[in-house]
Amino acid sequence: MKIRTTASFDRDYAGLPEAVRRQADKQLVRLVQDGLHPSLRLKKMKDYAGIWEIRVNDGYRITLHMEGEVWTLRRIGRTMC
Hints:
By secondary structure, this protein is of the alpha+beta class. The protein contains two helices and five strands, in the order βααββββ.
């Protein structure tokens, strides 16, 4: 599996608090090692064809697009609750 990022993801990531960046890094390692790890809570987003999300923590999510063996990280940010 390959992971790549979009410019939007890179900008979002750079603006995160350091603690959230560390948590995101940990979750991305889990994604590579075991995409079905329970803490990721991987799920398909409603109304967005081909877009999935994983949890970083209770307040942050990463959206991604999966195509074959390439997962593109699209955005990272706070949830809209």
